[in-house]
Amino acid sequence: MQEQILTPKTSDQKNNEKLVSRVKVQTSVIVTLYNLESDIADVYNSVLGALKKTDNHFEVIFVDNGSDDNSWNKLKDLSAKERRVKLIRLRNRFDESVSFDAGLKHASGENIVFFNTRVRINPAQISKLLKKLNQGYDLVMGWRYPRRDSKLNQIISRAFNWIVRKFSNIALQDVNSGVLATRREVLEDIPIYGNLNIFIPISAAQKGYRVTDEKIEQLPGSFRQSKYVSEYFRRLLDIVTVIFLTKYSKKPLHFLGFFGLIFAIAGGAMNIYLFIYRLFEFGPIAGRPLLLLGALLLVIGIQMISIGLIGEMIIFTHAKDIKEYSIEEILE
Amino acid sequence: MVKKADIFKEFCDMKQIEYSVVVPVMNEEENVELLYESITQVLQGMDQPYEIIIVDDGSTDLTHSILESIHGKDKHLKVIKFRKNFGQSAAMAAGFEQAKGEIVISMDGDLQNDPKDIPAMVKKLEEGYDIVAGWRKNRQDKMLIRKVPSKIANKIIQYFTGVKLHDTGCSLKVYRLDLVKRIILYGELHRFIPALARIEGAEITEMAVSHHARQFGQSKYNLTRTFKVIMDLTTLNLFIKYITNPVYFFGKLGLFFNLFGGIVLFSVGYLLQVQKYMLSEVNVLISFAFLMIASGFQFVFFGLIANMVFKTGDKKVGR
Q1: Which of A21, A128, B3, B38 is deepest in the core (most CB within 10 A)?
Q2: In a domain, A329, yes or no
Q3: Chain B CB within 8 Å of residue A257 CB
Q4: Is pLDDT above 70 for B296?
Q5: Do B186 and A314 touch (CB under 8 A)?
Q6: Both A234 and A280 in a single domain?
Q7: For residue range B73-132, what is the model confidence (pLDDT) as tens digits?
Q8: How confident is residue B257, by pLDDT bands cut at 50, 70 and 90?
Q9: Is A328 a member of any domain?
Q10: How far apart are the first and last CA of chain B?
């Protein structure tokens, strides 16, 4: 990932630099955008309005996820005027988790708000998330309600969230909204990878952090349509990952071994049947497709178990880096 | 910059503590005070600096506030509070990570183990072992639902891991600090600590300990985990025998499939040439043989990948 970072330095600001650096940033809002030239000023003003209500020590980090329109210049104009704006430009269009990671690296606040302009949520509503965060939650997920995007999107999203809820036992209505508020310590305690929207709240809840959601309003207007069927396919893979992550991330063999054993036993039973069939001279078996099916299942079953064993080896050899628990406090 | 005084203080702290007792607890409000008192009584009799590390594994009852009030009175006690319940392996791993004593003792939080056994076990450890496991010779549990399954389980564990202990499930164990720091505990591996110690090349022995019936609270044991235990045992079996060279394991498997496929192919040749079978009569058998051979090669490749995993991992076992 290549990135370009721009923090504005006007002459006026240079004089104030010492002063500014002493004011500790409390909240960092990371806004990721792609081709949003016409809305940048609006988004910033809404964020500003929302944050001024709660506290004044904040910064807004715009991550330009490889826009090919005029967004970057607009952002530069904005940062020349506003000292609380930081800019990061990714050279290419990457996953959301990449832009989030880039923003997080340069964020200095204790509270982190992640905000993806893709889902068109009224930025003014992030104050609701921060308010709930201050009530003692560790992570507040934005829940798009009421939604204004296409019905198909809504149905798919609902089904997806239902499945995720069933498997993770975490009562979140909208894990892929792309908007969340949390604390730095939470993000430092959990791994960030893949499609972040889904995994951050789930990993946080698994480590025992208090996770909740809050309704936020979606803006009317045009939505970027999912161009590729591959996006829906990725959702499916995400579900598999969620199951694996929530149930078996430390014990791959418990997952693969189960299916492997079922396959191997089924295949073994078929072949034993054929063996007995041949042994008692009921007829020839060399031309029976069942023989091939049985052998195939047996082989696949043993292979799955082997892959599970290799997974166990990977976990075991790296286990010192993967902590499965999270300590709330130590009394010494 | 770390101050010299800090280093010195740390050095002193490390030197000072001789015994660390690690106890995971979860919802043990009736037991925890008694537990603390009985451990303290024994350790004070041993006349060496000690610490008691109680890991609160996400208790939802009064356990933690009781621990807080004890901690206010006695600084020998260290309490680690988890955000939620992460299981006994995680709790023991966290306790082991914090332990500073030269000798580390682990035990259950439900008063079924008796701390009075600790001095004798420590003595045994000092004879030159790395780990002394407790053996509940006279178990005070219900015969059918706990003792019998436990006997069978121990036999299976002995067979799979090659560690000859009567009772791997007893939590009362005494270890040397360096072993404790090397053992890797996650998932449900706390059941197999002796096997894990063996992977590290430890000297293992056992000793009969007393066992009391449960006074308060519910036992958190359940019988439905057989499958997971078998899978864990398979893994450990592989680790113990092959972790430095897993290609041998997968290679054997692959060789078996290859040989089998080869034999089938050979017999097909015999059927075609000598018995004058038609090709259409045996073509399933030919596919069968090819399948076996192909998967045999795949297993060999699995083995090579497994070796790469081990070589790139930072956990170097048994050296």
Answers
A1: A128
A2: no
A3: yes
A4: yes
A5: no
A6: no
A7: 998 999 999 999 998 999 999 999 999 999 999 998 888 889 999 999 999 999 999 999
A8: very high
A9: no
A10: 34
- Chain A residues with CB under 8 Å of B318 CB are none
CA distance to A8, A83, B100, B280, per residue, from A21 (Å)? 14, 11, 40, 83
Determine whether the interchain pair B94/A327 forms a contact, defined as Cβ–Cβ distance below 8 Å.
yes
Indicate the pTM of the whole model.
0.79
Q: Which residue has the tokens 């090659």?
A: B162
Q: Is B145 on the interface with A (CB under 8 A)?
A: no
Report the alpha-carbon distance of residue A285 to residue A275 in Å, rounded: 8
Burial of A300 (0-12, 13-18, 19+ CB in 10 A): middle
**Confidence at residue A332, expressed as pLDDT on a 0 to 100 scale:** 84
Distance from C-alpha of A4 to C-alpha of B303, rounded to nearest angstrom: 43
- The whole-angstrom separation of Cα B233 and Cα B153 is 11
Shortest distance between the Cα of A272 and any Cα of chain B, in A, equals 15
- Contacts of residue B155, Cβ cutoff 8 Å, sequence gap at least 6: none
When pLDDT is cut at 50, 70 and 90, the band that residue A14 belongs to is very low
Q: What value does the mean pLDDT take over residues A64-84?
A: 89
Give the residue carrying structure tokens 């008192």.
B37
Instruction: Please tell me which of the candidates B98, B235, B291 has its beta carbon nearest to residue A309.
Output: B235
- Between B259 and A55, the more confident residue is B259
pLDDT at residue B101, rounded to an integer = 92
**Residues in chain A within 8 Å Cβ distance of B271:** 286
Q: Are strands A111-116 and A27-33 parallel, antiparallel or unpaired?
A: parallel
H helices present in B21-147, as ranges: 32-46, 63-73, 88-98, 118-126
- A226 in any annotated domain: yes
Q: Give per-residue pLDDT as tens, A87-112.
A: 999 988 887 788 888 898 899 999 99
Same domain, residue pair A94 and A66: yes
Would you state the CATH architecture of domain B4-242? Alpha-Beta Complex (3.90)
CB A204 within 8 A of CB A182: yes
Q: Is B20 helix (H, G, I), strand (E, B) or coil?
A: strand
